[in-house]
Design brief:
Layout lengths: L8 H5 L4 H11 L21 E4 L5 E4 L1 H7 L9 H14 L14 E6 L1 H13 L5 E5 L4 H9 L3 E5 L1 E2 L2 E2 L1 H9 L1 H4 L14 E4 L13 H14 L2 E5 L24 E6 L11 E6 H12 L7 H45 L3 E2 L8 E6 L11 H7 L4 E2 L13 E5 L8 H15 L1
Parallel strand pairs: 4-5, 8-9, 9-10
Antiparallel strand pairs: 1-2, 3-11, 6-7, 10-11, 12-13, 13-15, 14-15
Organism: Ciona savignyi (Pacific transparent sea squirt)
InterPro entries: Aminotransferase_I/II_large, Class-I_PLP-dep_aminotransf, PyrdxlP-dep_Trfase, PyrdxlP-dep_Trfase_major
GO biological process, one term: alpha-amino acid metabolic process
Length: about 425
């Protein structure tokens, strides 16, 4: 696979800055006297330890010796303790075919980032440039969509069903991309699609879950058209049942999948821990961008995650995933029942089996934008997101709304849905 086909010209020609090169040399050759890096004095740092108290009564401690590795600048890839854990997690849950060391650029590697959105923000300049046509789901996460547009690229939204991207539509759109994007040209010469961005589990906003058979079809098409897949999978561990659907990375025999994971839904969003994994040649270029952005992710947050993972172990991680999936499934069932009770004749929907969202289609209206009207929201004291916020094509109306059942108070869910019913009745 020619990895450089997927990279922007600026990325290919870019070189790490000299200070970073010297730091890397120093790291690999202990015993030298380091005067190139702008590290503050160890004696000037007031932190000597930390303790995290968990909801189950467990206390996780960062010792004084460990704190000495947390407070200075650290590796651009992330704390070694965390990247080692990430490798174990991927071996256990994904077993990437490229998780070997062939030294040809296709070998598997990982880098910690400041949450999944920051990871995307740093990988986009590597693989997306102005006048690119980028493949996305017809409804996709708003900030992702916005960031792609800011780069000067054009979105081409692929139709979906309850199992995610429809393979036949992906093939059709790839064969006809020029006519489908002609309205966006405005004198520009657009480039053929090279990148597909997909959220295959608990899709935001629709809640869809792509089964293994669907993923195999999509991967085969990606091989035929030589497409790079960005597998944005922050909801991977929120699936009902004990069996997790295999990932795109688990079937990636070519090295054409870059996978993005997150601890936001699995531990806590405020920690801002995510990571990217895939062929080393991409990870190296990713670190070149992240170094000029956040330098590296908070070491304290990284160490907190390490402590959780040490405490849980691989078996505990699997147990927690099952508990999360079952808890969210119960919340989803309650929301589903409550919506049927109050709004069964006003909306249609499919109950998801992963993620945190319900995707409701409002009947008797073409566009749901009225649900975001400030006066309506204040009047009825309830808040949902209209579908057009997620649409890849903003010129078309959308009758959908997204609501998050994950953070809804179970005791007030009936009242929340009753208010939503009143808002919709008021709007249509």
């Amino acid at each position: 696979l020619n990895f450089f086909r997927f990279m922007t010209p600026n990325t290919i020609s870019d070189e790490p800055y000299i200070t970073r090169k010297l730091m890397i040399i120093a790291e690999k050759n202990p015993g030298g006297i380091e005067m190139s890096a702008g590290q503050p004095s160890e004696n000037s740092i007031p932190l000597v330890g930390a303790t995290f108290r968990c909801s189950d009564g467990t206390q996780l401690e960062i010792t004084e010796e460990e704190m000495k590795t947390v407070t200075p600048y650290q590796s651009k890839y992330g704390l070694p303790q965390l990247t080692s854990w990430i490798q174990r997690i991927h071996k256990e849950f994904h077993s990437p075919p490229k998780m070997d060391w062939r030294k040809d650029g296709s070998e598997w590697d990982v880098c910690v980032g400041t949450g999944a959105m920051s990871v995307l923000d740093c990988i986009f300049p590597v693989v997306i440039q102005r006048d690119d046509v980028v493949l996305v789901e017809e409804y996709c996460y708003g900030p992702t969509k916005k960031r792609i547009k800011q780069s000067g690229a054009v979105l081409l939204g692929i139709p979906m069903d309850g199992d995610g991207i429809i393979p036949e539509k992906l093939r059709e759109y790839l064969a006809n991309w020029q006519s489908l994007t002609s309205a966006f040209e405005n004198g520009r010469k657009l480039r053929a699609p090279r990148v597909l961005i997909t959220v295959p589990v608990g899709h935001n906003p629709t809640g869809s879950l792509s089964p293994l058979c669907r993923k195999k079809e999509i991967y085969k098409i990606a091989q035929e058209y030589n497409i790079l897949i960005l597998e944005d999978d922050p909801y991977y561990f929120i699936q009902s049942g004990s069996r997790l659907v295999p990932s795109y990375q688990s079937m990636d025999v070519d090295g054409r999948v870059l996978r993005i994971d997150s601890m936001s839904k699995f531990v806590a969003p405020g920690l801002r821990i995510g990571w990217i994994s895939g062929p080393k040649v991409f990870i190296e270029k990713f670190t070149d961008v992240s170094l000029t952005s956040v330098t590296h992710t908070s070491n304290l947050s990284q160490m907190a995650v390490v402590k959780f993972l040490d405490h849980w172990g691989l078996g505990g991680i699997r147990d927690r995933a099952e508990r999360l999936g079952n808890d969210y499934n119960k919340r989803c069932l309650l929301a589903d029942t409550t919506i049927r009770k109050h709004m069964g004749d006003m909306v249609t929907w499919t109950r998801p089996c992963s993620g945190m969202f319900l995707w409701l289609k409002i009947l008797n209206t073409e566009d749901s934008m009225f649900t975001a009207d400030p006066e309506f929201c204040k009047k009825h004291a309830v808040y949902v997101v209209p579908g057009r916020e997620f649409a890849s094509d903003l010129s078309k109306p959308s009758p959908y709304i997204r609501l998050c059942f994950a953070n809804m108070n179970i005791d007030t869910m009936d009242e929340a849905i009753r208010r939503l019913k009143n808002l919709i009745q008021d709007g249509i």
